[in-house]
Input
Amino acid sequence: MRIEPTEEQLARACYLRGESWLFDDQIAHEVGIDGNTLRAALKRGMQHNADAVYAEFARNYIVASNQVESHALLLIQQGGKDWQRAAWWLERWAPRR
Output
């Protein structure tokens, strides 16, 4: 039986996605859900007829993901002290790009 995440858990996951370099399974663990549950909620929110809570979660999570990825790219371009950490993270976050 799958336990549905609460709205608070989904909101916290979005916050962590945008404010940290944690990966999805780490974020799920931090908010008290399984990584598969997080991914299922994201998939559910991207469906055409998604429930409003899940649709909002998916939008916010994707926006937060894009923001953290853009921030990592900016750190690399600027060549500051964290550029290697950002490069390492991006290699694991999006290995096919």
